[in-house]
Prior knowledge:
Layout: H1 7-19, H2 22-29, H3 33-47, E1 52-55, E2 58-61, H4 63-88, E3 95-101, H5 103-114, E4 124-130, E5 144-148, E6 157-160, E7 165-171, H6 173-179, E8 195-198, E9 203-204, E10 207-211, E11 214-218, E12 225-226, H7 229-237, E13 243-246, H8 247-255, E14 260-262, E15 269-270, E16 273-277, H9 285-294
Parallel strand pairs: 3-4, 3-5, 8-12
Antiparallel strand pairs: 1-2, 5-16, 6-16, 7-13, 7-14, 7-15, 8-9, 10-11
Helix pairs in contact: 1-2, 1-3, 1-4
Amino acid sequence: MMKNIDLNVLRAFFVVARERSFTRAAAQLGVSQSALSHSMRGLEEKLKLRLLTRTTRGVSLTEAGERLLLKVGPYYEGIASELDSLSALREKPAGLIRISAHDHAADTILWPKLKDWLKQYPEISVEININYGLVDIVKERFDAGVRSGDLIAQNMIATRIGPDFKMAVVGSPGYLDANGRPATPHDLAAHNCINLRIPTHGGLYAWEFAKGNEALQVHVQGQFILNTTPKMLEAAIAGYGLAYVPYDVAEPYFFGGQLRSVLEEWCPTVPGYHLYYANRRQASPAFSLVVGHLRI
């Protein structure tokens, strides 16, 4: 029965019950006395109980009305308070924003852009989940994902958050002195290469190359299979073979003499990172702020 009762009518009853006056209650609710009286009669008819006794002096509660006020009133106030709190979220930037990204995007884009900016918004929390797979952000309940521009699903909204970047094949001086430098991507078949596991496909990442009009993918072999860029770099520095990584993360090790770059003319420039997310007609202020700050 209660599921058929309009919450606005219930609210009106509680105001009448507390004010003990249709006149004062109608003024407080912003309705006419006749409309308010009609609503109360409708509520009584649905409950099949008399709740109010109308007299020339005002309004008094019946036993049923008194019980409804005392027993249900506090629950209604709690519901109303919580609904007001939810409404406030539309205007106050607060809440948790979950983002799926792999470590290069997190290290070069998300962390540098968010680490100081977030201090201005203590009510906003950001979770960055490191994942190399092409995550279904809707199914996994992420607010957004970060991927290279050519990997965004067509049904997603995408906004660029980073510039294009170049890839690099790198190895330690000791490894290259002992095994030679590959002249073409085909030469990688004779080298120990450090593979990257892609969880979405359950396989190993194929190294991508391009030169002029020629583009190819090479499936490499090696002793190590890893699933993060930092570990691939660590293995390359330790002399375990060649690694295929973003140029900018390897560059500091070129200056330190720990790594050398090979196949430079074959290594492609990759479309920059994009933040992608499902259509959100009523995005929270927190989410809108994060997207606006990351966008370039």
